[in-house]
Specification:
The complex is a heterodimer of chains A (237) and B (425).
Chain A: H1 4-12, H2 25-30, H3 35-64, H4 90-112, H5 114-120, H6 123-127, H7 131-143, H8 148-175, H9 188-202, H10 224-236
Helix pairs in contact in A: 1-8, 3-4, 3-7, 3-8, 4-5, 4-7, 7-8
Chain B: H1 2-15, H2 25-35, H3 54-87, H4 89-92, H5 102-135, H6 143-152, H7 160-175, H8 188-199, H9 201-204, H10 214-220, H11 234-240, E1 247-248, E2 251-252, H12 259-269, H13 272-277, H14 289-302, H15 307-327, H16 337-342, H17 346-353, H18 364-384, H19 392-424
The chains are: A mainly alpha (237), B mainly alpha (425).
């Protein structure tokens, strides 16, 4: 099993929300004109992910998952006679949790930490509809982290990965602001190209093996390069 | 020379605005400034103009790369015949010696490497000209360097059409869409290499591409390499240390061999002296540390490259190499730190790629950070990521996209420091 630290590092680099899964692209592209706003949005994403993913983790493991309601009545458990599976509700429940938590947190932050509220500003409510937040919750569900600590470190890592992505994109956009880009590509067009080039650079972390395991348990994108070349070799033979 | 200048001066009005060949101005401008200093004069204010313009700066880099190119030509030939000596011991047996058959090796290398250079320059300059005509600017000089860098970081056997496709991709997507020379955010040559690396991994990595003609030898020898021969680079061998079947120069070593044994075998196969001279297989121009340092000397003497980046890049690699030694979880991590600097493309990347004045950090402190993190990341990717034996390319690409951010924070720190000074005073 991967350690908590592995999960953290992997979430930042190898499974970067932007460059590996293209999640949260709308705000990533829209709010990356200057580094300052990029930092604000990035911090908000880290914050919301770290709050909502553990919350959804609890919801998933104690309410939604098949047989998760054992604590109400042993009959509802996996081995009981009336097993309950509420996982069909997970999308709506997750998004409801995200939206309500963001609202709650916003009120609390406004009341008790006005400076932080001023720094996060409009970004906090904006984040409630960011795909990377729901994505974080769904990845958490899909990967079945064993403890809430793992889920939190995944959330924190994903947030930091998203932060790095948007802040570096913002710095690049500040740099190319006065470049003589062909008129048709100005604005979003060139930003997409920049994102693609950044994606190539982030490929450097694909295929890093975490932990000591060697039996290629790394699914989806990690290890893609090795597997592709192996497949190509197989085909050639 | 004077006569030539007169001819050009006479032609000048025909290419000016309203002249007969107005549309051909970019072509004319390129050729004339290639021979003589540009005729622009400063119209306003007091400026000191130097004859060293962008074109001459770039040309200096090309000259600095010539030692690496020449050595690369010889090295390509040498490893080709070294492999032949296994297949054909009577005819080429002595060729595995470095100096035997020097002429043959150089001729073979020329025929392998020169086409790469020609294709790279041809495709790149053609695209530059098209963009120059369409967008109404002169030919951008930046490609002089990129066009030479691209062949030097390819394996000698790479198909020419791939070089062409990669060059086209890098010039269009990496540079021209951003507005041409000086506007790109990632190094052009590295973009070309990364493109091939991810699109055609079998042509750019593995153990069949580094010695020219390996596939022919394999085909002639019933589908396997001859006994004792190896097609891997030093880095490829090192990457195998992490897996189940460690290999050094074609010799498989028992899985349970201790890391000290592995390192000893490795040092036997690739001793530091040969690695520094460049007598190891690899991409065309990257192997010889001496040739690269000659180029580095010229770049530093003329002030084209930043000593901060080169120095901190090497320092970063060395420090992270030591750090890996401290962890020492496998044989690769136990590799002496200085080895990281002399094998693979580390030196080449540090001297010619990381110092690219456009994509590197612009601030002085930023350059130190940029180089240090780049060198460190290169070693990290090499050691920790078995999918990519060579980490320098991706490390520099990564630092290219991080450079604007580093600059931003260096500038911000500067501003806040000065603000503080203002307040206390």
């Amino acid at each position: 099993m991967e350690s908590t630290l592995d999960i953290f590092v992997k979430a930042i680099f190898t499974e970067n929300m932007i460059f590996a899964y293209f999640l949260g692209m709308c705000s990533y592209l829209a709010v990356s004109k200057t580094v300052k706003t990029g930092v604000g949005l990035g911090l908000a994403v880290i914050f919301v992910l770290v709050v909502t993913v553990p919350m959804n983790y609890l919801l998933e493991n104690y309410v939604l998952k098949e047989g998760a309601l054992t604590w109400l009545n042993p009959e509802y458990g996996l081995s009981g006679s009336k097993t309950i599976d509420l996982s069909f509700l997970s999308f709506i429940m997750f998004i409801a949790v995200v939206a309500s938590i963001v609202q709650l947190v916003e009120m609390l932050v406004e009341k008790f930490a006005p400076t932080l509220y001023g720094a996060l500003g409009i970004f906090l409510p904006l984040i409630a509809v960011n795909c990377s937040i729901l994505g974080g919750a769904l990845f958490m569900q899909d990967r079945q982290y064993s403890t809430i600590l793992d889920a939190t470190s995944f959330a924190f890592g994903s947030g930091i990965g998203w932060f790095i992505a948007i802040v570096s994109l913002a710095a690049i956009r500040e740099k190319i602001r006065y470049s003589n880009v062909p008129p048709a590509l100005r604005g979003l067009g060139i930003t997409f190209i920049v994102t693609g080039l950044m994606g190539i650079a982030f490929m450097s972390f694909m295929g890093v093996e975490y932990g000591k395991k060697k039996d290629s348990k790394t699914n989806t994108i990690s290890g893609g390069a090795v597997e592709t070349s192996q497949i190509i070799n197989d085909i050639k033979q | 020379m004077k006569a030539l200048k007169k001819v050009i001066q006479n032609l000048d009005p025909k290419f000016e605005k309203g002249g007969k060949w107005e549309k051909m101005y970019p072509l004319y401008e390129t050729l004339s400034t290639f021979l003589f200093t540009p005729k622009h004069v400063t119209k306003k204010g007091a400026h000191i103009r130097d004859g060293v313009d962008l074109k001459r700066t770039m040309f200096m880099v090309v000259i600095a790369m010539i030692p690496a190119l020449l050595f690369g030509i010889y090295n390509t030939g040498h490893w080709h015949y070294e492999l032949q000596s296994y297949l054909n011991p009577e005819q080429y047996g002595a060729y595995s010696d470095y100096l035997t058959g020097f002429g043959d090796k150089v001729v073979y290398g020329l025929f392998q490497v020169l086409p790469l250079v020609i294709v790279s320059y041809g495709v790149g300059l053609a695209i530059e000209f098209i963009f120059g005509f369409v967008r109404g600017h002169g030919l951008h000089e930046g490609f002089l360097v990129s066009g030479m860098l691209i062949p030097l970081i390819m394996p000698a056997d790479v198909p020419l059409w791939m070089v062409g496709v990669a060059t086209a991709f890098a010039v269009v997507i990496g540079k021209e869409v951003f507005g041409g020379t000086g506007m790109n955010i990632v190094n052009i040559a590295l973009t070309a290499r990364a493109f091939l690396f991810f699109a055609y991994p079998t042509a750019m990595s593995g153990d069949k591409v580094w010695k020219s003609g390996t596939t022919d030898v394999i085909a002639a020898n019933d589908g396997i390499l001859p006994d004792g021969a190896s097609g891997a680079t030093a880095l490829g061998d090192l990457a195998s240390f992490v897996g189940d079947a460690p290999v050094v120069a074609g010799e498989t070593i028992a899985e349970n061999a201790s890391s000290a044994e592995l390192i000893q075998k490795f040092e036997g196969a690739y001793d530091p002296l040969h690695a520094i001279i460049g007598m190891i297989p690899g991409s065309v121009g990257e192997t010889s540390m001496i040739a690269i340092l000659l180029g580095a000397g010229l770049l530093l003497y003329t002030g084209v490259a930043s000593w901060r980046i080169i120095l901190s890049f090497f320092a970063g690699g060395f420090v992270f190499g030591l750090l890996m030694n401290l962890i020492g979880a496998n044989a690769y991590m136990d590799l002496p730190a200085y080895y990281h600097l002399i094998i693979g493309g580390f030196a080449f990347g540090a001297v010619f790629m990381a110092t690219d004045p456009v994509t590197a950090s612009q601030t002085q402190y930023g350059k130190l950070w940029y180089g240090f993190l780049g060198g460190g990341l290169a070693v990290l990717i090499r050691v920790l990521n078995p999918a990519y034996p060579e980490g320098v390319m991706l490390a520099i690409l990564f630092m290219n996209i991080m450079a604007p951010l580093i600059d931003h924070y260096v500038v911000q720190a500067n501003i806040s420091r000065r603000k503080k000074r203002f307040k206390t005073a």
